[in-house]
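Good day; I would like, with your permission, to put a structural problem before you. What I wish to show you is a protein chain and, alongside it, a tokenised description of its three-dimensional fold. Please examine both parts with care and let me know of anything in them that strikes you as inconsistent. Thank you for your consideration; the sequence and its tokens are set out here:

***
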Amino acid sequence: MKLKQIPEDFKVEEIIKLPKQNPAGQHTYFWLTKRNYTTVRAILAVAKALNVSFARFHFAGTKDANAVTKQLVSAFQVPPERLSNLNLKDIGIEVAGRFAERLALGDLTGNRFEIVLRDLSKNEINNIKEHYLILNKAGFPNYFGEQRFGGGNSALIGREIIRGYFRDAVYYLLTYSERENSEASKFRALAKKKFGMWPALLNACPKFLGIETTVLQHLANIPNDFAGALRKVPKPTRRMYVHAYQSYLWNAALETVKSRLKKEYAVPGYKTKFGKDNFSKKIKELLTKDNLTLDYFKCPRMPELASEGTTRTAIIKPKKLKLGKLEKDDLNAGKFKLKLNFELPKGVYATELVKVLSG
């Protein structure tokens, strides 16, 4: 089975109820459709094209890069006509109107998915149909999906930010990734060899590595100011690093109790109260291994990223799950493709549903 063989195989659309429009409102809402962009990179491209600050934009959720996604974004004091006139490659903009308040995280209720599974054998198809019946009845474990962890370095960067080890956070940001093209991998290897040689690394950094370029530009001007370099990274992205470490802890702990799941479990933060159950014991064990306690989630050296913790539902049942008609796969000779349609609450990863469905 192949998932996301092309971006069009993975389509996501946010489910959001728009507030009442206000013609005098200072926030322009627009639907952002992107292909092969992370949410932050796409909005950075829009901000650059408009010559305005990224800080003017707000969104309710991050979306996968290797996909075609549609999500709502608000822009402060950006006229609708300026957005409508933009023409950017792989980015579409559809103005929704003016509103009094900016878009917030709580505005998102869920996501609608259309996914094409490719390169399927007849045995795999039978397996999917069998698991479809089970999944519809029992749901699936609500693990954080791989998108949460970026190229594999997000949780590592987050851990070092929580510790206050900003040099190490920058090191992981520049040198480590598990899923990239050859040009990026070549740069990562060079960054390991020449870490600290900022002008040389800046010259060698591929332009599509925008966050890395921004960090290196700061360090080339102010060497060893690792905190300042990290603060050049948009706050939503830095916050995502911290959340990735929390997600790593939650996934690892859920694995220890998955045979007897409760309704929900704590995503650790500085306000979390642990019990004596196996889930809590596993997270405490992992924090101890990393020389951390829950208090570190206050992020004392970068307090704008402090996280008090939350709870997360352990089992999810998808809505409107449908299997499409079996078709011959136009990209893989002799194999089949199958379309899935479903809806999930916000924060739930479709890739985890697909894992269970495919067995």
Observations:
- Residues 175 and 188 are 4 Å apart (CA to CA).
- DSSP finds twelve helices and 14 strands in the chain.
- The chain has two domains: 1-141+317-359, 143-313.
